[in-house]
């Protein structure tokens, strides 16, 4: 593990912002960014040495790979978190449009909701049945 990956992992472990999934996604994204920076020739980096040229290199690479605007926005959000934690939040503009990232496009606006109907009667566990009823009434979903 190189210095950048190590210091980014330490930064993530010491700053546990967000849910467990958010933390895991951030760690994965920043580890990927560290590997891609190393592949781009930035070998002697630490988490505190982030600069605008590093952000631009990553953004150019990601746009060249044809990633969706949603993926780019998520990765830029993780880079903003990194910059904020090291005290360099001015490196990235707050608006993604300034970086040339388009608005997020959703594939479909069709509801994917499923109705239980008579299937609810087949559920024998009272707690599971109640959970399903609450999900239906309040519009909740499971991940």
Class computed from helices, strands and strand pairing:
mainly alpha
Secondary-structure element series: HHHHH
What is the domain tally? 2
Helix content: 40-55%
Q: Residue ranges: pLDDT <50 for 5 or more in a row?
A: none
> Helical element count?
5
Q: What is the global morphology?
A: elongated
DSSP summary, beta strand count: 0
Termini separation comes to 32 Å
Q: Give a short account of the largest sheet.
A: none
What's the mean pLDDT score?
Answer: 90
Task: Explain the layout of strands and helices.
Elements: H1 3-14, H2 20-39, H3 52-64, H4 69-85, H5 126-138
Helix pairs in contact: 1-2
Descriptive overview:
By secondary structure, this protein is mainly alpha-helical. The chain folds into two domains: 3-99; 111-143, no CATH class. It contains five helices and no strands. It has helices spanning 3-14, 20-39, 52-64, 69-85, 126-138. Helix 1 packs antiparallel against helix 2 (20-39). The chain is elongated. The mean pLDDT is 90.
């Amino acid at each position: 593990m190189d210095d950048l990956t190590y210091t980014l992992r330490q930064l993530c472990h010491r700053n546990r912002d967000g849910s467990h999934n958010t933390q895991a996604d951030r760690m994965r994204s920043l580890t990927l960014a560290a590997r891609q920076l190393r592949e781009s020739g930035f070998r002697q980096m630490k988490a505190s040495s982030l600069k605008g040229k590093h952000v631009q290199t990553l953004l150019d690479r990601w746009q060249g790979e044809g990633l969706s605007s949603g993926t780019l926005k998520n990765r830029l959000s993780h880079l903003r978190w990194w910059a904020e934690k090291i005290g360099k939040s001015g490196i990235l503009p707050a608006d993604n449009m300034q970086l040339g990232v388009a608005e997020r496009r959703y594939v479909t606006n069709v509801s994917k909701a499923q109705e239980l109907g008579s299937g609810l009667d087949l559920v024998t566990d009272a707690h599971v049945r109640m959970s399903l009823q609450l999900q239906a009434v309040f519009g909740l979903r499971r991940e």
